Amino acid sequence: MSAAALRQLAGLFPEELPLGGYRLEQLLGWVYGRGVTDFSQMHTLPASLRGELAAAFSLQPFAGLQRVDAEDGSSRYLFTLLDGQRTEAVYMPYAGHSTLCVSSMVGCPAACRFCATGAMGFGRNLSAAEVVGQLLAVAGDQGISPRSLRNLVFMGMGEPLLNLAQVRRAAEILLHPRALGMSARRVTLSTVGLPAKILALSASGPHLRLAISLHAPDEPTRQRIIPTAHAHPIAEILSAASAYQEATGRRISFEYSLLRGVNDHDWQADLLAELLRGLIAHVNLIPLNPWPGSPYRATSEAGLQRFLDRLALRGIPVSVRRSRGREAGAACGQLALAAAPRADSARGLSAQNSSRL
Ligand code: SAH
């Protein structure tokens, strides 16, 4: 049987595994506690059981991975999936609160004009196993327990709300006390802003932290840079955000990537502050991460500070999110974009530390 035909264990709830009691705890301990993805290494399980598990399940949704380390300590991972497509994750080991950024898709259909993933187009949705597998693979490569990773953001490739079934399933496995036991407060879903899907998440959970990629407070500017803005007006997004806040009690984050001369005017900061009044909100200003072919330029440091000050003056909690690992191609989607024309891929699952990408 090929690996692709095996059921991907990382995408299953503990209740769905054909084991119970003590043996199940042992298996979960190996996978989620120790990050072991090779059944033959699970030596506390009887050899016959290891054989049965290996015949029916796989913990390897990837054919290969490559790691690119940045000087600031972050590591970007490019995964080759079993069908040869590629996706990526970024591990950011901040002291005390390491964060893993995962992808929900190969490419992305949202096609935001300033985003490198958007320029690639849409490949396919990832399965829950491919999402959870990113965490297991990164933990394995870093030599840490998967359960020690406490913060995760869906801010890699893809629009998670357009792959809601698999993202929800993956998130529930992340939160499952017998799997990874993460806290919903520490799992952030970042969306381009799809009101009906936000309401769906609000109604049926899980109640993750929500980040909304607003990027402009006025329709003409937003429509210019975000194609989905034509179908989903800002007012509808904000009203869905407000409903989400009411249902979950969570503060909502708004992402705002600053594009020089496009969305960084004083009046836009003022209008943004106006729009967010009434919500418990937080604005994350993101300096544009330029990529080869990017049609926009980043706002200057002075311009960024000015935009930040205007928001702060109007009582909006605001911070700057500086992307880490610029020299490693840190803009969302850049690794896979740069790697796309290459026919070769890493073999096996030992990461190659390559800076050639
Ligand atoms: N589809 C989701 C996740 C995207 S990536 C969403 O739209 O939110 C996470 C954030 O990075 C989004 O706010 C996205 O708009 C932003 N982003 C993507 N490419 C960027 C770039 N080159 N520079 C700055 N921000 C970027």
What does this structure look like?
This protein is of the alpha/beta class and 357 residues long. The chain folds into 2 domains: 3-57, DNA polymerase, domain 1; 62-342, Aldolase class I (TIM Barrel, Alpha-Beta Barrel). It has helices spanning 21-33, 47-56, 116-120, 128-142, 164-175, 195-204, 219-225, 234-248, 266-276, 301-313, 334-339; strands at residues 7-8, 57-58, 62-69, 75-81, 86-92, 99-101, 105-107, 122-125, 151-154, 187-191, 209-213, 252-258, 281-287, 318-320, 348-353. The strands form 3 sheets. Strands 14-13-12-11-10-9-6-5-4-3-15 form an 11-stranded mixed beta sheet. The protein has a two-stranded parallel ribbon with strand order 1-2. Helix 4 crosses helix 5 (164-175), helix 6 packs parallel to helix 8 and helix 9 (266-276) packs parallel to helix 10. Bound molecules: S-adenosyl-L-homocysteine. Residues 110, 112, 114-116, 155, 159, 190-192, 213, 255, 257, 286, 288-289, 291, 331-332 line the site of S-adenosyl-L-homocysteine. S-adenosyl-L-homocysteine binds next to strand 10 and strand 12.
